[in-house]
Amino acid sequence: APLALKPAALLPAPARAGIALVRPKSGRMADPLPAGVRRPVLPARESADSRLSESREVAERRAMQVLARHSARLGPAGLSLEAAVRLVLSQAQWAGGQAAISLATRWDFLERQDGLAAYQALRRQFLEVFDRTGRYVQADREVLGHFSAPPAGPTWLPANDRLSPQPAAGTIGSWIELPTENVRFAHNDQSERFGHGAKTDAGGSVLQLAAELLAGLTRPADVPEFTVCWHEGHWFCRSGNRRLAAFRLVQRFAPERFGHLRVRAVATDDIFVHGKDRRRPKLTTQMNGETCHGRWMVLRETGETVGCSRPGRPEYGADLLELLPFTELGPEVHASYH
């Protein structure tokens, strides 16, 4: 059955189309030099203002490209991702200091008419690629070829293949709490969009849910339950692999908030291991190779994984999440969301 998530588009919209970002009350910061001391003038080619302007343009272009890539690939569901990003930004209006400056630097185009027009033109350009080629890996690679710089991010491999403790008697049918990284994917791959068939466009996406969880717009308790089953010394996701993907993503960015999951344990049946009535089994992670064993899952539309990252192949969605304000603010700031 389709997943009944609350799309960000249905949440209260910001007060105006643009995002009101925090800036100093005056147009300039106070000059720290004592009275009578003149600031040295740099050569025009090395002007601090020109270097700062260039770095702002690079940061803004990066944010614009990343959001346009994901939104265009998601099609109609991309509008919900954009709405979620706008809500994340509006929640950060009160942030001060370097976080506010960084936020304004990256996302200022969303409140400028010319910037928004440039973003929409870029999204249309990327959308044409996906409409022509389909929402498959090769189309996403073509879009990435238009980026001013290739995607980057920390390289990391999944945790070792240690076994989980044997479940106690009476666990099956009960709610249990598990370390997020210890819950393994049953599927080798999965679509990034929730829902099935024609309903995928209205059901949101893994990336949208991850952004809403990190920003506190969606609480973990509001995410529909998913189940796990015990198999070969590990807990595997029996239902809800996409939801698990979102939680595994946010656990990477905020382990202190998403280090554990509350899930329901169910029996491991033949449908999970062998399938039934010519339908493939739920457990297909072996198709990713013998070293995977559920530690990561591939997102079909991009070929990227959730659960690990390799050189030149960053983890799915990390390029967007690392540019949003919740990746820069401390735990005391996150606490104010709840």
**Adjacency order of strands in the biggest sheet:** 1-6-4-5-2
Largest sheet: 5 strands, mixed
Number of helical segments with 4 or more residues? 11
Structural class: alpha/beta
Total tally of structural domains: 2
Distance between the termini: 30 Å
Shape: globular
What's the β-strand tally? 8
Descriptive notes:
The chain has eleven helices and eight strands. The chain has 338 residues and is α/β, with parallel strands linked by helices. The protein has two domains: 9-25 and 50-144, no CATH class; 175-337, no CATH class. The strands form two sheets. Strands 1-6-4-5-2 form a five-stranded mixed beta sheet. Strands 3-7-8 form a three-stranded mixed beta sheet. The longest helix is centred in the first third of the chain and has 27 residues, at 48-74.
Give me a quick take on this structure.
The protein is of the alpha/beta class and 338 residues long.
Structural topology:
Layout (H helix, E strand, L loop, with lengths): L47 H27 L3 H14 L5 H11 L5 H21 L3 H8 L30 E5 L3 E2 L4 E2 L15 H10 L11 E5 L2 E6 L1 H13 L1 H4 L1 E6 L4 H4 L23 E3 L5 E2 L11 H4 L9 H4 L4
Helix pairs in contact: 1-2, 1-4, 2-6, 4-5, 6-7
